[in-house]
Every structure is written in structure tokens, then in C-alpha cells.
Write a structure and sequence with these properties.
This protein is an alpha+beta fold. Helix content is 12%, strand content 21%. The protein has helices spanning 89-92, 125-131, 155-166; strands at residues 22-29, 34-41, 59-64, 70-75, 85-88, 103-104, 110-115.
């Protein structure tokens, strides 16, 4: 019996939600006795979402959050003379809805599946900044580590602060109105 509640111990992978994240999954369909491959976009939900069939023998074989994961498929040689193959999941199936069954991996009996890429790529400050386009490609890898007291400053706030420091001060004329700015230029009248 499946419970409506899940515990953290049931989770295979825990990552921060990112809009547009694609999950690639390979599962065994207990009813059809075949493996299916599916790719779908993660959508926020209040309750757990089943994305494989509800048959008691259905099970998730492997999953990945990498953009274009690859897997090695080893077939059972007793049932068919099919040589092992490498499958690029993103080329095998496009992104569909979470409720879609997915594409059948093969009509042959699968002996073993192995994911050739990591399940996910750990987020680093460098990767996060590149994904959010806060820095140029030339600046990637040339970032200085933040000092202990600057750990609370966001990358965007730091970027704005650095840009403000590099921006030239506009030349002010003594007749320009000063609203919320520092005092204007001091001029010497020569009356002494």
C-alpha cells in the first residue's frame, strides 16, 4: 500500500527547485514488463507526484537531472541476441508531460542499466553565476573568493557595487541643482 505521505528517507535525490529543470527517467513498467524512458519538466506541486505507473511491480531504474544524460543498456542474451548499446536519452525522447508513459526502451529483455553521467551537477558559485548570466564567459574562473564578512552579499549586489565603483563620476556644474547629493563644487571668489 502506498501512503499519501512521504518521508525524506524515500527521496533518491534532493536538489533546489529550478524552474525549467528537466528530469530524465528510466523505469520498469510492472504491467507491461518493459522498460520505458521519459523526460519531463519539473512542476511545483503540493503533494508528491507519481511519474511512473502505479503497478506494484513498477520501479524507477535510474534518473538524471543532467541536460543530456547517457546510459549503457545491457540486454539479456538468453532471450535475444541483441548487443549492448549506449543510449543518449535526450536524442531518444523529447520532453513530454509528467503524466506521459514515455517511449519503450526496447522490445528485448534488459539485464542491466547503467547511467554514464552523474545524476546531477552540484551547483557552484561559478556555475550559478554563469547560469544567471551575471558575469561574462571571460570572467568565469577568474572570480575571487568572498571574504568571511562578505558571505551574506548576493552576487547581484556585489556586481552592482563593483559597477558603481568603476563608473566615472559625472562632472557637476556649480549651477546644477543638488538633490540628495553631496555638496557642489567649491569655487574661490578671490575676495580676500
Amino acid at each position: 500500500m502506498r501512503s499519501a505521505r512521504t518521508s525524506p528517507d524515500d527521496a533518491l535525490t534532493v536538489v533546489k527547485y529550478r524552474e525549467g529543470q528537466i528530469i530524465s527517467a528510466v523505469y520498469f513498467d510492472g504491467e507491461k514488463k518493459l522498460h520505458h524512458v521519459k523526460r519531463f519538466e519539473v512542476e511545483p506541486a503540493r503533494d508528491p507526484v507519481l511519474f511512473i505507473t502505479e503497478h506494484p511491480e513498477s520501479k524507477l531504474e535510474l534518473h538524471s537531472l543532467v541536460h543530456a544524460p547517457r546510459m549503457h543498456v545491457r540486454y539479456d542474451q538468453r532471450s535475444a541476441q541483441k548487443s549492448d548499446e549506449q543510449v543518449e536519452i535526450a536524442k531518444f525522447i523529447g520532453v513530454k508531460g509528467v503524466k506521459a508513459i514515455g517511449n519503450r526502451l526496447s522490445p528485448f529483455k534488459v539485464k542491466e542499466l547503467e547511467l554514464l553521467d552523474p545524476v546531477f551537477i552540484p551547483m557552484t558559485a561559478e556555475l550559478e553565476e554563469r547560469q544567471q548570466m551575471l558575469i561574462s564567459e571571460d570572467e568565469v574562473g577568474n572570480l575571487e573568493l568572498p571574504e568571511e564578512e562578505d558571505l551574506e552579499e548576493s552576487p547581484m549586489a556585489r556586481l552592482k557595487r563593483e559597477q558603481a565603483a568603476l563608473a566615472p563620476e559625472p562632472e557637476l556644474h556649480p549651477d546644477d541643482p543638488l538633490i540628495g547629493k553631496k555638496p557642489g563644487k567649491q569655487i574661490k571668489l578671490g575676495l580676500d
